[in-house]
Structure formats: structure tokens, C-alpha cells
């Protein structure tokens, strides 16, 4: 068994697609109409056949409450791995990304947290 798809709730699918592709550097894999919304997934450019991340609309009160609660408590919704966290931190700062936690060493890993502009905090980690 393997993870093939995971999702995060986003306030605006178009804004999220732009941020996740143009700012973070993911590649759009799927963009299919699904009723009033779309099934949009992005993948890592390093593993285009790997796990897909669904940019799921939060058009549901439970989703909105969940997303808002995590954000207000400062809890990241997911974690992305990076090879050089300081380099990635500086690159994202240049793109105007707002960090709530700069790179911080915690044992064997270094973590940083940023706002994805779509209602989520995202953690990046260098293992």
C-alpha cells in the first residue's frame, strides 16, 4: 500500500494553483471540472508520478472550521521536504512568502513554517 493522493483545503483554487506552481514550484498534474469546482492536483517536479496534492475547495463549514482552527493555533496542515532549507527559505522570502517560523534546528531536522496565502500554514523540513 502507498499514498497516491493527499489533500489540503484552500479558500480559492485558482489562487492556490498559482501559489503552489509559480511560487513553490510544483507542477500541475490534474485540472478537471468537478461540478462547480475542479479536481486540481500538483506534484513535485522531482517525482511527477509520485504523490499528488489535491487543492481541495473548503466549500463546507466543517472544512472551513478545521482550516481556520489549525491556522489560528499555528499548526501546519502538511510538511514538504527540502534539501537545503536556508536556500529555500531565502528563495521563498524573495517571492514575498510570509514565514511564521524561520528555519529552526530541532534535533536532527530543521523546520520552517510559512503562510500559503490560501488559509494554511505549511511546514518545510530539511532532514
Automatic annotation (TrEMBL):
A Pfam family matched in the record: Glyoxalase
Superkingdom of source: Bacteria
Residue ranges of domain VOC in the record: 1-127
Name this polypeptide is given: VOC family protein
Amino acid at each position: 500500500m502507498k499514498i497516491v493522493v493527499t489533500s489540503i483545503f484552500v479558500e480559492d483554487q485558482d489562487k492556490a494553483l498559482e501559489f503552489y506552481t509559480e511560487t513553490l514550484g510544483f507542477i500541475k498534474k490534474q485540472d478537471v471540472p468537478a461540478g462547480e469546482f475542479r479536481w486540481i492536483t500538483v506534484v513535485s517536479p522531482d517525482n511527477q508520478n509520485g504523490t499528488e496534492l489535491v487543492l481541495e475547495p473548503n466549500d463546507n463549514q466543517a472544512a472551513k472550521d478545521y482550516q481556520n482552527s489549525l491556522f489560528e493555533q499555528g499548526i501546519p496542515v502538511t510538511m514538504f521536504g527540502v534539501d537545503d532549507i536556508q536556500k529555500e527559505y531565502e528563495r521563498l522570502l524573495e517571492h514575498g512568502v510570509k514565514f511564521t517560523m524561520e528555519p529552526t534546528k530541532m534535533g536532527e531536522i530543521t523546520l520552517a513554517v510559512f503562510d500559503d496565502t490560501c488559509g494554511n500554514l505549511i511546514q518545510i523540513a530539511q532532514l
